[in-house]
Amino acid sequence: MAQKLEQQTNHLGKLMHHPNAPSRANYPNYNRKQLEDRGLFDDTHKLVLLDEGRIAIPIKQDRDSVEVVRQLWPDCTQARFVLPASKKFHTRNNTPFAKLTSELANLMQQYSISEDLKQEIPKKWERHEDLVIIPAMSFLSEDWDRIPYLWEVVARCLSCRRLARHAPVASDGVRSSQVSMLLGEGGQVTHIDNGISYSYDVTKCMFSTGNVTEKLRIAGWDCSKETIVDLYAGIGYFTLPYLVHARAAHVHACEWNPHALAALRQNLQDNGVSDRCTVHEGDSRLLNLPPVADRVNLGLIPSSEGGWSTAVRVLSWNGGMLHIHSNVEESYSTLDTDTNGSSTENVEPGAVETVSAIKCSRKERLREACSLWSVNTQSRVLFLLHTIKGSKQWSVRQAHLEIVKSYAPHILHVVLDLSCQPIAAVVVVVVVVVVVVVVVVVVVTFSYV
Fold it and tell me: Where are the beta strands (DSSP E) in 202-287?
């Protein structure tokens, strides 16, 4: 789009009297803004000053854009120019993804690989030091084997030395990692998260970067006078925030994956908190521990229900907090939620918070599902409290429901903060107060007489 400034003056003559009209020097920028507002401007090229006061302004090359420009600026000449690339073009095409797609496009053509397989080129990845982990569905087709040194090309574009591919977590009971190495030796990495050092082997241990919000939440608590039981410690995802930032007096960390146990012990030592942590090796359901816990962390998904009985058993007789992790599906709102015949009389459901990023219609269904799951969980835990700690009456109350992340379409990873308190303790306090009042009244009466 080339145009003379004189022609531009005639074309915009009616706008010159408007208080917001552009000055003569700003005509190109003004026209650019008009084009941008209509989605017609080609931001991959620069504006260029031509001879005789003409300016070349790049427009998109599709037929509709050309026709709209012709109608809006009939006095402007449309012509083809070789224009220099803009900064935005260089920035956009200098990203790792742009480099990767560009190099692979040439190789795909060279080795006769279908264009349809471009969907297997990863758009995101995890970086851990010099190791990059690409998504599980990346480069799965056997056709990619035609490209020699494919992994070296990918590693060069992503600026890493080691390359690995995600895989679903093993259903072996200990949630073993099935990440496979594609390039380089060994999967040992060190990840720094909120000042905490986590060292582990990505091919043997799980590490979820999506749990960062929950770890930050724990880090903001004051647990300096509390004993914590972490029933699913892993490499220390939550154990370490309790010790390093929440300053827990002591943490009992339970784990049965041998690789995670080795990483956990190393991480406790590396972060200087091993003296305040007791590691319990084996099945946490068989944990031999008296009721000492002020908080019990149940950080296992899709469900931590297998540990609820243990959590109740180790919970202090003075009461405490259970942090119950679970995946809640949108369809939960249509399920028949059995409560084992337990009463919900002492269940106090609280408000359910959800993430604003979820679209409104889905948001309501997920809100209902989370609310139902919370009430059902409270009923089940109350039943366990009465069954296992039957010498006292208990009440349970939702203190908070945290949305950790969207785990999958229509599934949320949530954490229920469940306050469990013995009712008897409240009754004793009330009785003591009543007795004191009666004694005072009697003494005053006798004195008066």
Answer: 227-230, 250-255, 277-281
